[in-house]
Design goal:
Elements (H helix, E strand, L loop, with lengths): L41 H13 L33 E9 L11 H10 L4 E7 L2 H21 L4 E9 L5 E6 L5 H12 L11 H19 L6 E6 L9 H8 L9 E7 L45 H4 L4 H6 L6 E4 L9 E4 L5 H4 L6 E7 L11 E7 L4 H10 L2 E5 L3 E10 L2 E3 L4 E4 L3 E11 L14 E8 L16 E7 L6 E11 L3 E8 L33 E4 L2 E5 L1
Parallel strand pairs: 1-2, 2-3, 5-6, 6-7, 14-21
Antiparallel strand pairs: 1-10, 3-4, 4-5, 8-9, 10-11, 11-20, 12-13, 12-15, 15-18, 16-17, 16-19, 19-20, 19-21
Length: about 575
């Protein structure tokens, strides 16, 4: 159902992504049809069942190819085909905590085992940056990560950390595995973590330290100390401390070819926190129940501190902050993940011990009761980030994330998504840029693989509607604190009238005279409301989540990253 590799290759191949020239890594056993069912481990068998259910066994839903860049590309949208063949769509989670976090509990192998069981192909272990973690934790967790890689060969396990971004919130930082993965992360955390350096307040000096930290990571990649490094901002609107100008500064901190900061969580973890009493902790989805503080960006409205359909306000608002970034024509992607610390309805409790002395908690033990006062799910149990990779390897996942070949969903609302924009004999997919002559007719085609069976809550979700969102590329902003995009709006909504199989949607973008982008959103239709920018922009978007009464399983959405159209 497609061919080619494409994307925003800002990094090129100068920094050690040599997987194109190395032997291709074998497929995971669950994908490999030559491996009989009876030879699979229970986790592999579970993964194969999910793939079969979705009709994705083999290469999966594939994506398209884009011809090379043109001088008219308005911003960092260079593309190039590298090979024919399809993408593997690999599901993963980049925000996971273990006993090496001061508020964590589980062993690395527990999170990896659960991730594998819940269909994850790749995971990032991201224990909190802190003085203790920088001193001993980043070293001590590495053998556990390496052991988990050996035990679960069909799951790619990255080492990372949750960075206390100086002057801002948290972010996932992770590197390609290798002999320097520990030393690079340790030096980064020691020299650039906001908690370690006492640099949490929103000051120009602290903001500059964050940019310097990203530049440090870029330098490690350029020098080939590590093959690659990425940063994704976590729960960006939760406390209002990630200002628009900071996000732009992170995005622009490094050479586009080695871009380190590439996006933020479109939807945070902690989704079970919204379950009402007596079923759950009766807080907010994502634990988004904050108010402005002295460090918050004053321009953000009160509703930005809440989730909307489980998604961060920056992503959920059509014509809002995410669209303002996309309207510049520069890449900035969304993800979704678990932020798994303490899992809802678990029976394990933290082993007693001294975290500051040991850098970890002892292994968890049986607690004798079901704990419904926690707000997290296991990796893959609720939130999934799907990455179009050109093979099963660490480098291919990182390349796919950087290229923006990513879509996200909650509750397994859909099984697969293939998006392509075509015109002038060319086509592009998620994260890509279609270069056409001015006035060329352009068509958006979307294939949605509907849910193929029950999710982890035990029911088969049903997609009710898919929205097409379009925005004009208006170029760099003069005010770096801009967080609106006046041209972005829902231009078409499709009601879905079938429950199984694949749905094909087609939308004519018309004869394109100026640069634009399109992105997609879908819903189960259970909750909706007029978007923050009004009905003319978003007549039926996600509704603001009610603190204390927001069952995440009754309000499911998927979102895609954008595709650009660049006429010249």
């Amino acid at each position: 159902m497609g061919h080619g590799h494409h994307g925003h290759h800002h990094h090129g191949h100068e920094h050690g992504h040599d997987h194109d020239h190395a032997p291709t890594a074998p497929l995971p056993a669950a994908f490999d049809s030559s491996v009989p069912d009876e030879a699979l481990t229970p986790e592999q068998a579970s993964r194969r069942t999910l793939l079969r259910r979705a009709g994705l066994l083999g290469a999966g839903l594939t994506a398209g190819s884009v011809l090379g860049p043109t001088a008219a590309a308005p911003a960092r949208a260079a593309t190039g085909g590298r090979r024919t063949g399809g993408f593997l769509w690999l599901a993963g989670d980049h925000h996971i905590h273990t006993q090496y976090s001061s508020d964590g509990k589980y062993r690395v192998v527990d999170q990896v085992r659960q991730g594998a069981r819940h269909g994850m192909d790749w995971l990032v272990i991201t224990d909190h940056g802190s003085a203790t973690h920088a001193r001993i934790g980043v070293d001590k967790v590495n053998p556990d990560i390496r052991a988990a890689r050996d035990a679960y060969e069909d799951t790619l396990v990255f080492q990372g950390l949750e960075w206390n971004i100086p002057g801002a919130e948290h972010g996932t930082v992770f590197v390609h595995p290798g002999k320097h993965e520990v030393s690079v992360l340790k030096q980064f955390e020691t020299e650039y973590d906001g908690s370690v350096k006492g640099a949490s307040d929103s000051t120009p000096a602290n903001e500059a330290l964050a940019v310097a930290g990203l530049a440090f990571l870029g330098e490690q990649v350029r020098r080939r100390k590590v093959k690659d490094a990425l940063m994704l901002a976590n729960h960006p609107a939760r406390r209002g401390v990630d200002s628009p100008h900071e996000i732009r500064a992170w995005r622009d901190a490094t050479d586009p070819r080695h871009q380190i900061a590439v996006g933020f969580e479109g939807a945070p973890g902690h989704q079970a926190a919204g379950l009402p009493a007596p079923l759950g902790m009766a807080r907010a989805r994502g634990i988004y129940d904050n108010s402005p503080s002295a460090n918050s960006f004053a321009g953000y409205p009160p509703e930005s501190y809440r989730t909307w359909g489980g998604f961060d306000w920056m992503t959920a608002t059509v014509g809002g902050l995410w669209d303002s970034l996309l309207a510049e024509g520069k890449p900035w992607w969304i993800t979704a993940n678990s932020d798994s610390h303490q899992v809802y309805a678990d029976t394990a409790v933290r082993g007693p011990g001294d975290f500051d002395t040991d850098g970890r908690y002892p292994d968890p033990v049986y607690g004798g009761r079901i704990d419904i006062t926690q707000g997290d799910y296991w990796p893959g149990q609720y939130s999934r980030t799907h990455v179009g990779a050109d093979g099963f390897s660490y480098a291919a996942v990182m390349d796919g994330i950087r290229a923006g070949r990513v879509w996200v969903d909650h509750g397994q609302l859909i099984s697969g998504l293939d998006v392509r924009v075509s015109g002038g004999g060319r086509w592009a997919t998620l994260g890509g840029a279609l270069h056409v002559k001015k006035g060329a007719a352009v068509t958006l085609t979307v294939d949605v693989a509907l849910a193929g069976g029950p999710n982890w809550a035990g029911f088969t979700p049903r997609l009710a509607r898919v929205d097409v969102i379009r925005g004009e590329v208006t170029g760099p902003v003069s005010d770096k604190d801009t967080f609106t995009a006046p041209t972005a709006r829902v231009v078409k909504s499709y009601d879905i009238d079938k429950a199984t199989g694949t749905v094909r949607l087609r939308f004519e973008l018309g004869r394109v005279e100026s640069p634009l982008y399109v992105r997609l959103r879908g819903t189960d239709g259970n909750r909706s409301g007029v978007g923050p920018m009004g009905a003319a922009v978003d007549p039926a978007g996600p509704a603001i989540d009610v603190v204390g009464d927001a069952d995440p399983w009754r309000d499911l959405w998927f979102y895609s990253n954008p595709v650009w159209v660049l006429p010249s």
